[in-house]
Each structure stands twice: as structure tokens, then as C-alpha cells.
Amino acid sequence: MIDAVSVTGGHLGAGLGVVELSVALHTIFDTPHDRIIWDVGHQAYPHKILTGRRDRIRTLRQKNGLSGFTRRAESEFDPFGAGHSSTSISAGLGMAVASDLQQTPRHVVAIIGDGAMSAGMAYEAMNNAGAMDAKLIVILNDNDMSIAPPTGALSAYLARLVSGPVYRGMRETAKSVTMKLPQFLHEPARRTEEFARSFFTGGTLFEELGFYYVGPIDGHNLDHLLPVLENVRDANTGPILVHVVTKKGKGYGPAEDAADKYHGVSKFNVITGAQSKAPSNAPSYTNVFAQSLIQEAKDDPRVVAVTAAMPSGTGLDKFAEIFPDRIFDVGIAEQHAVTFAAGMASEGMRPFCAIYSTFLQRAYDQVVHDVAIQHLPVRFAIDRAGYVGADGPTHAGNYDAAYLGAIPGMVHMAAADEAELRHMVATATAYDLGPIAFRYPRGEGSGVEMPERGQVLPIGKGRIVQQGSTIAILSYGTRLAEVLAAAERLAALGLNPTIADARFMKPLDEELIAELAQNHDVLLSVEEGSIGGFGSHVATFMASNGLLDGKLRFRPLMIPDRFVEHASQADMYTDAGLDRAGIISTALSTLGYDEASMLAALGKAR
Ligand SMILES: Cc1ncc(C[n+]2csc(CCOP(=O)(O)OP(=O)(O)O)c2C)c(N)n1
Predict the structure, then answer these.
(1) What pLDDT is attached to residue 158?
(2) Which ligand 1 atom is the nearest neighbour of the CA of 42?
């Protein structure tokens, strides 16, 4: 696994922590008949190696290769796909109930991390499972780490269980007591000891929820794991929670020593552990967001930041260094993050809720009901908008324009480059009339000159980047760079397109769109988003105002209406026809031209 991930990059620390647990589970349970569900699925690399995918492990996260998460289509040993956290207990409970109804007895095991256990959904599932007395085994994989150190009362509770005298005592006495018995009694004695432990060590919280609690046990010790799992498998009781203590990054020095335990890594040198990030002069969008927010926060004490367990992913770890009292890591709890921010906004604070596009999906009702209906000025910093590459369809940030665009009163912006992002952070800071969102992609900017400070943009106004004729391209987001590259090629073919950057999808710059529609033969919209997003808003406006009744040909370029499997970000955009070549090709075909005959005509003219 270490060797493979050193070449592919990916999630390493979590998998290293569950090597023994994976071996133990596959020893005791009869998969795929029994169901093993890995929460998030990022720790499932050892499971993949053990279930027929060893020969393909070096294709992890590559185009046409193994997914970085569990995936039903990939193997019968992956009964449930994931990528987002805290779904495993719900899915497992559904499977346990199905097994009952279908009278097909099987064991269902959900493995969930202490980080994932901070999400409400896990408790909704436990509450339901406890009341139903379902036969479900939940393994709480407690490595005292989320991506960052975990926060919150649950994490403190688990730490108390693990540091309790019974756990510490048991670890030592288990071995010594067993070893004093004659050899043939070692195994039964150990089993009895492990089983008895569950009666003594507490776990009240889980017991109150109706689970039979076993643990905490050492998740790296097969002598402890195997008999406990066997007992649990054979126990005739309702839901059981086995609390297993592991170490993230276990067994690989550089991972064990790293602050994030090598949660997610780029390619690295196995000997030194040094990770190779692709060299770039341009700052990442995440970094530009963080630095811009720090600038705003320095001038405005009302600016506060909220993250749902992603301080480094969102760049807010930098903000935390300067304003430790104005940043709130609420755990993997996007729904709570949004309503918590709404509460602060209702009291006159200026909260920035920094959540990836894909994870904000979880908090949709909170955005509608707690924020938008009350016109509360929560600022949504939507990172990882558009395709994200190797993490694949579970993490693609393709839908925020569609799902936020449907909400009355929402302001939705997309940054065309890193300078625009800085302006949008300033704009969001200054805007107090209601919710406002701005999206920006994964990765580096295009290296444009950065303004010292962000300027407040006029709400609902786009900008003309280049004035031309016949064809207009209206870009929303960072595809602008590809649009400009396409325009260069079109110029070589004798076309001079007008190019505009919409900046806002909501409110739409109706004046700009009417101008483009009335003065051109062809209008293309280009965005890193799905149907229902920017292009749909433009089309609706034009259709409602008669702008499509004449000679204008309108073509929306957007992410196709299908889930695109993991590949590089660039490959995914090529596949979607959203790169330079795709834009040129749509522009020409809409005009009824083809490139070869245009070149021939140009040649003749010369
Ligand atoms: C809904 C959601 N929010 C955020 C994430 C990003 N994320 C992936 S793994 C992870 C930490 C999980 O911690 P834990 O469950 O303890 O597993 P570990 O990696 O420590 O094994 C986070 C926050 C996610 N996958 N899903």
C-alpha cells in the first residue's frame, strides 16, 4: 500500500491504521455474503488488496483504475459506496433489516472513524438501530484523529474511555493472566476475558442508545481483535458497538510523525517520506481565499470563520494562526456549521462558512430554511467547485450553482481567476442583505497579477473582457482561461468573439446578457457546473424576455448530465468539452463552420 500510494498519491494514513483490523474482519466474517461497510471509504485500500484487487492497487485513483473509495460497481466486496462520511451505520442498518425481511441471515459490519462519529447522521442511525434492536455490528475505529485533530465533546468522551483505568489495566492483565494458564487454556481464557471486558468498561453513551458496548480494545493486536470479533459475530443480541483503538499512519514512520498522519498525500519518496507537490508559481485558490479573508478580518472584527473538520483543506488553518478565537471547527457537521453560522449572522457577525461544494450538499435545508428564508448574511466560501480529479464523482463540486441558484435571495458568484476571488471575498464581507456564495476550484490559479486588496464588486454586474462581434462567449468561473485560449484560435480563423465574465449567476446581469444576445449571432455560456446552473439561468432569462425568438443561436456548455469517473481534472474537462478544443468546436459548429474549410478559405484569401 505504501509503495502504491507513493506513486499514485491518495489517502494513506487511514488505511495504514486499519491493516490489522482489515485482516481480522476478513478472517472472522464471510465476505461478500457478510457485509463490511467502510465509512468514507478512504481507509479501504487494505480491504481492496485483500479482496481481489491487489494486482490493480497501483491504478488507484488513475483514469480507468481503482477508485480511491469503496464502490459497488468495482467489487462485490464493496456492498456500499462512499466518499462522504458518516453514512455507514444507516446503510448497514438498512442491510440488516433487508437480511431479516429476506430471511437471508448475514452479518453486517459498519466501520466508522471517531471523526465521522461527529456527524449527526451517525446518531440518527444509532438511535434508530438501538430502538429496532437490529443485528448490526458497528466498529468505532478510534484513532483520535479526523483529518485534523478531532474537536468536540465526543472526542473528549472517547479519550476518557480509552484513558480509563480499566482499559489500561486490561491491556496488561489480559496477557499475563492468559500466559499463566496451561497452553491449551490460553484461547478460551482470552476469549472469556475479552468478552467480560465489555461489562466493565462503560461506553454509557452507546449503551444508552441501545448498543451493547465492547471495548476499548487494541486495534493493532490480532490476539485481541480476533476473539472479540468472533464473540461479537456469534453473540445473539441486538446492535453491538466495538470500540477499537488504532493509530493513524501506523507502521510507516513519516506518516506516524506527520501532523496530519498522512491523511491525504501527493506522490512521495518512500525512504524519506518527502512529498512532491507539482511546482507552480501561481497560488492555490484555497490560499488566496484564506489570505484575502485574513485581510478582511484584520479590518473587521465581525468577520468569523466556520469549517466542518476541514481547517487545512479550506485554508482556514492559516486564519486560525492569526485569529484563534474567531475560527470554529465544528467537526464533520456541515448542517450544524450552516445553522451555527446563521445564528452568528442573526446577531450581527459576518460569518464565512467555508465548505467544499460537494459537502455543502448535506446542508441544503439549513441553507434554505435557516439562512435564506430569514435573509441572514451567511457567506458561503465554496471551495473545490467543479471537477476535482482523482477523488471522482463523490467529491465533484458540480451542483452548487444549480442547488443554490434555485433559492430566492441567494447571491451566487464564481471567480474567474485568483484576483477575482480576492474581490469576491471583499464583496461578500461588505454584503449584509442576505446569503452570498462564491465558488472557486481545486488547484492553482492562472498566475494573474494580484491586487493588494479586494475591491467590492457591484452586485449582479458582469464585465466585458474583450469586445468583438458575431459570436459572444459568456463565461462563469475559471473556464475563462480556456475561453481566452479558444478566442486566440478563433482569431486566427478570422473570428473575433466578444468575451464576457458574468461574475454573478444570481442576480444575473440582465443588461449584459441582453446586449450580448441582441448584438451577436451566437451566444455560448461556459461554466464548471451542471444543468440547472448558470446556463439554465441565462436560458430562462432569454426565453422569458423574447431574446431567443429571433436569429440568436444559444448553446450552454456545461458539465454533462452523468457521473464522470475519477481521472485528472484536465481529462475530465476535456471529456466534458469544456477545454479550449471543446469551446472552439462548439463555437464553430454553432456558426455552421468547420475548421478545415475555414483554414482553406483563409489560405485562398491570402
Ligand atoms: C460529509 C463529509 N465531510 C467532510 C469529509 C472530508 N473527510 C474525509 S475523511 C475525514 C476525516 C475522517 O476522520 P475519521 O472518521 O476519524 O477517519 P480516519 O481518517 O481518522 O480514519 C474528513 C473530514 C467527508 N468525507 N465527508
Answers:
(1) 85
(2) 9
